[in-house]
Amino acid sequence: MSNQTYYGPDFGALQAQDPEIASVLLSELERQRNGLQLIASENFTSPSVLAAMGSTLSNKYAEGYPGKRYYGGCEEVDKVEVIGNERAKSLFGAEHANLQAHSGASANVAVYQAFTKPGDTVLAMSLPHGGHLTHGSKVNFSGKWFNIVSYGVRQDNELIDYDELRDLAIANKPKMICSGATAYPSLIDFEKVRSICDEVGAIMWVDAAHFIGLVAGKAIPSPVPYADVVSFTTHKVLRGPRGGMILSKAEHAAAIDKAVFPGMQGGPIMSNVAAKAVALKEAATPAYQSYAKKVIENAQELAAGLTDHGMRAVSGGTQTHLALIDIRSTGVNGKVADERCGNSGITLNKNSIPYDPESPAVTSGIRVGSPATTTQGMGKAEMRQIADLISRAIKDGGEEAKAAAIRSDVKALCAKFPVYPN
Ligand code: DSN
């Protein structure tokens, strides 16, 4: 090792060669440092994950799988992928892992391809109730190529209606049932979903993109023992690089691998596969487990703080990393709240609430998440402060002088929890 050298990212060279792009990198870092990042699907990766992403592994073509590549020179990247696969299986107790999908949506394309044919019926959560584009949106391949039957949440408690789910499964005999969502603050009863799948002979697919990091940190129950296949992104609570991953039972391993390559994509991004392996090692530590628990506590405190400001947490609160907030009591819609918060240094997103009377472009709600601020080291007291800042921003963030005052308070709070301090 001692006489080996390594070439890593050289920001000085980038600045000299391409100041236009370098300046955007700098100003984006400033934006991340000086504002509150409350998008539930975002996080701050570690410098080690960033180092692996920005490495020379990016140069290598590696179509195929370890030991069975279509290119020479894959001895080194093979090691990375084998290590990553083993770490994923060990962390999640999974029989098979595939780390190659470029993104969560790509991973989902592979899942459809492994288990279904165009025209097949798939049961999935409706988008307005928290589902994802790839769960059957009409503008997505899933809604165009498959017969998607959607289930939702009950109007009275805003929780998944498992009776409706079972009735729809019996009536429509889907090939596959998908559970998982992008804006559902409660836990999913995977045992119940498994029993419905068994009753109708459907493949059980869990899209765990949002909450897999909480599973990795042992803060919530795992879908892995129940599901045939679990797909997810690696960059949310899990705090890895941008990308996708799939876990499955051993009996589906060949179908999944074939669906990812050559079915869905060509060469994997080996620098990101390495970064996924790094993140999986980090997620197996007691420090990460403590982080995952704090993410949930913080989301609960933030939801409670917003409730104290007269807003309403959908389904009464949260059991995860995100809260969906009905803000109709403020007299401001989701779109305007999103803009006013943005103008005040608080990044979050407008979000439909279940049975929302407003269109998806306007909405009656906002979605807030705690993964990034918890990585910064913020705790319950800061969550209360953030709730106050959001409330002020929704009310006053449209007036420049008041927005400037909120921005300054946001910056002062963030300065106490510096992001990438070195
Ligand atoms: N776009 C992601 C989110 O924000 O939830 C889901 O993939």
Task: Provide a brief overview of the structure.
The chain has 422 residues and is of the alpha/beta class. It folds into two domains: 56-283, 3-Layer(aba) Sandwich (Aspartate Aminotransferase, domain 2), CATH 3.40.640.10; 288-415, Aspartate Aminotransferase, domain 1 (Alpha-Beta Complex), CATH 3.90.1150. The protein is 45% helix and 13% strand.
Listed once per kind, the bound small molecules are: D-serine
How many β strands by DSSP?
15
Second CATH tier, the architecture of the largest domain: 3-Layer(aba) Sandwich
Structural class: alpha/beta
| CATH structural fold name of the largest domain | Aspartate Aminotransferase, domain 2
Helix percentage range: 40-55%
Q: What's the Cα radius of gyration?
A: 22 Å
User: What's the number of structural domains?
Assistant: 2
Strand order of the largest sheet: 4-10-9-8-7-5-6
Low-confidence stretches: none
Q: In DSSP terms, counting alpha (H) and pi (I) runs of 4 or more, how many helices?
A: 16
Overall pLDDT: 97
Query: How big a fraction of the residues is strand?
Result: 5-15%
The global form is globular
The main sheet comes to: 7 strands, mixed
**Straight-line N-to-C gap:** 26 Å
